Amino acid sequence: MVNILEVRNLKKSFGSIQAVKDISFSVSEGEIFTIIGPNGAGKTTTLEMIEGLVPPDDGEIQFGEYNWNKHAIKIKRKIGVQPQSSAMFDLLTPEENLNLFATFYEKARPTEEILQLVNLTEHRKNQVKKLSGGQRQRLAIGLAMISDPDIVFLDEPTTGLDPQARRNVWDIIIELKKLGKTTILTTHYMEEAEKLSDRVCIVDQGLVVTLDSPSALIEKLTNEREVRLSFLDGETAAQEAEIFARALDSVTRTERDGTALTLWTIKPEDLLYDLFKFTKDKDYQVEQVSIREMSLEDVFIAYTGKEWRD
Fold first, then answer.
1. By CB neighbour count within 10 A (0-12 exposed, 13-18 middle, 19+ buried), where does 77 fall?
2. pLDDT digits (tens, 9 = 90+) for 215-272
3. Which distant-in-sequence residues (6+ apart) come within 8 Å of 10 by Cβ?
4. Which pTM was predicted?
5. Which of 37, 80, 286, 296 would disulfide-bridge 149, Cβ 3.0–4.6 Å?
6. Is 3-219 CATH 1.10.599.10?
7. What kind of architecture, by CATH, is found in domain 223-293?
8. What is the rounded end-to-end Cα distance, in angstroms, of the chain?
């Protein structure tokens, strides 16, 4: 894969606060690359440096053979940045906003194409102030796309949206990938990062703590699966099942809370086979069974020691 962006040893301080201590990564052409981290981790400052909005104190930012010091105009033609909603003109329509932004560039994608891409064709004549939050966010992505950039920067594009509006934005991001665009994304939603990203970069305290595909990060964390059961026959049944499970080779640890039993295993199929044989022999009734896969949220907590907050 060709690297479209190289970030090397970025550093940025604001007074005595070291917002970015030492951040390096590369982004491949056509990938969805997501930066996540707790509040104050340095991800927004990193994004602003890459976008050319804030100069780094130290480090290099390369877009192929271009850098901000020598090729600022060429880089601006290559990138699209999702504007904050305050940058839109509320009394203009989506169509008028797009036409206006198109005049800022030598080359622009047709407004009609952008309206279709962000699913706003039906709302093209409505004033922006009358659009829903989700429609405004889709317009913001459209405005980032008007110059037909190679790289699109989306900073928390779904924050505050309801689940349906969020998924509409996801569809657009997937469509950008199909068009061959590179998307650099920040998000507050772990499920979003896990579903959309080719690779995820977790940043904490101004440093990259880990970087890989969501599936590889989860696999590195553990091969364990979490099996949860609850018993209709009371705490005694759960207690006996826990004693039985502890003796099984397939179980790595157990936890019981009243009639609910949680087991960790690297062989969930073997565990369930043995466990259901036990409950059948004992004539115990199991109310619920679930197997939980480890998620990107588990990875996040493992690397940062912080609970994730949407």
1. middle
2. 999 888 777 788 999 999 889 999 999 999 999 988 988 999 999 999 988 888 899 9
3. 20, 22, 23, 24, 46, 49, 56, 58, 59, 60, 61
4. 0.83
5. 80
6. no
7. 2-Layer Sandwich (3.30)
8. 33
**Residue 306: both structure tokens together:** 């912080």
Structure tokens at 161: 């949206």
Domain with CATH 3.30.70.100 in the chain: 223-293
Residue with structure tokens 């896990």?
Answer: 194
Q: Cα(177)–Cα(196) distance, rounded to whole angstroms?
A: 10
Structure tokens at 191: 């499920």
Q: Tokens representing 6?
A: 């190289």
- Of the candidates 37, 36, 45, 38, which has an alpha carbon nearest to the alpha carbon of residue 17? 45
Q: pLDDT for 84-119, tens place per residue? A: 666 889 999 999 999 999 998 888 999 999 999 999
3 state DSSP class of 51? coil
Write the DSSP assignment of 117-184 as a string of letters.
HTT-GGGTTS-GGGS-HHHHHHHHHHHHHTT--SEEEEESTTTT--HHHHHHHHHHHHHHHHTT-EEE
Strand-pair category, 199-204 with 32-36 = parallel
Cβ 221 vs Cβ 302: under 8 Å: yes
**Do 22 and 10 touch, CB atoms closer than 8 A?**
yes
**Would you state the structure tokens that stand for residue 23, as one six-digit string?**
């951040």
Say how far apart CA 95 and CA 80 lie, in whole Å: 18
